[in-house]
Amino acid sequence: MKQKKKKIVPFTIKMIFLFAIVLLITEFASVIVYNMVNVSKYGLMMWLESSMALVMLVIMLLSGNRYVFTEKRENFWKSIKKGAPVLAISFIALLFAIITLISQQQFKFNNFISLALLCAGIGMFEEFLCRGWLQNEYIERFGHNRKGIIKSLVISSLFFGLMHITNVFAGQTLFESIMQAIQTIGFGLLMGAIYYRTKNIWACVFLHGFYDFCLMLADINYIKDPAMSGGTIISIFSTVFMILLWLFGALKLIQKSDLKETDEIISEKELIKDKKNEKLCNIMMVVSIVGFFLTTLIVPEDYVITEFNYEEKEIKEYTTHYQHYEDYDINYINSNLEQFNLNIYLNDDLKVVVKNTLTNEEAVIDYEVFEYTVIEDENSYGILIYTYEEIYYAEYNKMDIDNTSSYLENIKKQFKKYEVPELQDAGYITIEGSNEKYPYLLGMSYDKLIIMNNEMYLVK
Q: From the CB of residue 366, how many other CB atoms can be counted at a distance below 10 Å?
């Protein structure tokens, strides 16, 4: 490798700019290709990660980093063995995933394949970016001495970890994103040490992709990964054990790497010290793995998992309608020529109110509302209230309407709550050949849900 005499700050600014451009281009393109790739749970994400991996490959080649793929490197399987801490956690996660899938008694093959391709894309993109490009570029600027190499590993790992903070925009909580970022900084140090030691970028791609695959495998049957609450203590402890595992794994590899000048004679005393440090790293890695395993078995009483898993319903021809109201009037005259006028609106406290405009009586639906819609046909009307992660829906027969206060109170009692993934919109659909309207929900991951006969279904 040739020593690059360029300044570090301009390169870092260029790197961040290029990374932002890659994200913007792929996010914009995802809107265009959505209908082509959204054939499984991970279809869109798979396309995005694969696209970013391809763009990153082009950037590496244009930046003169072709040597990443052509330089002499250690054997693939020998390189994989140096990722023993990653393999250990991966197989623990794989064991739990297999047990989970067996207990669910179902297996969504499309999601399995798309998850495998997604993790391959993640492995290539993130390893090309953080190890193949950033780490090498910083080493060429800081130098190939001990201090320069350690600086390069740390900076590229910090970037690797901090870029996972952006997962907060994908619906992940800030706490979860911070815990993930801390873990991935340590993971980045280990992967950086493996790459520096072996020069085998494909071993890093495999270890990274396999690790993500094992962690995500248990969720392939869900429309969206389960949302967890009450697991703060587990998250903190597992993060501590994970970061220790990654750090000591990285230290062991760095300790055994030749970070000194080639003409420097290593004394017997230094060799003994290196062996002691290696032994300490091995002990701490075993302690971390055992601690992580035991932590996963400790489940607090308030630990709750919300599973988004629905029966599929195939609907071929339908039309979607997204209508939102500030207020909505229902005017109905029954067979006895009695008139009923209901006004549905959102009050200043963001609560839905149903008001009988003839008697001026009203009922306040006591839910925190993001938006609501009314679904009305000839014989009935329904009120769909939704937040980002909860749906409340009730349907009423128009023949049952009366002008008493008890009717308004009854409206409040009939709402049913549905746990749903984070939503981007809600409305109703009309199905070809039917006059009925059904509540329809569109998730942030483009999941399509419908409520029929008081049950939630995934539209296939």
A: 10
- Residue 430 pairs in a beta bridge with 319, 437
Distances (CA, A) of 264 to 85, 109, 123, 146, 260: 31, 56, 37, 13, 7
Per-residue tokens: 93? 């996660």
- Helix extents (H) in 298-383: none
10 Å CB burial of residue 7 (0-12, 13-18, 19+) is exposed
Query: Each residue of 49-103: pLDDT tens digit?
Result: 888 888 888 888 888 888 999 888 899 999 999 999 999 999 999 999 999 889 8
Three-state DSSP class for 367?
Answer: coil
* Edge-first strand listing for the sheet containing 352-356: 327-333, 339-346, 352-356, 361-365
- Residue 344 to residue 313: CA distance in whole angstroms: 31
| Residue that has been written with the tokens 């937040």 in this structure | 387
> DSSP code of 132?
I
Place of tokens 């609560």: 351
Rounded to an integer, what distance in angstroms lies between the CA atom of residue 212 and that of residue 375?
Answer: 42
CA distances 43 to 33, 217, 313, 348, Å, are 10, 15, 19, 41
Q: What is the DSSP letter of 164?
A: G
- The Cα 309–Cα 100 span in angstroms is 14
Name the residue with tokens 């903070």: 165
pLDDT tens string 285-338 = 788 777 777 766 664 544 455 566 788 888 888 888 887 787 899 988 877 788
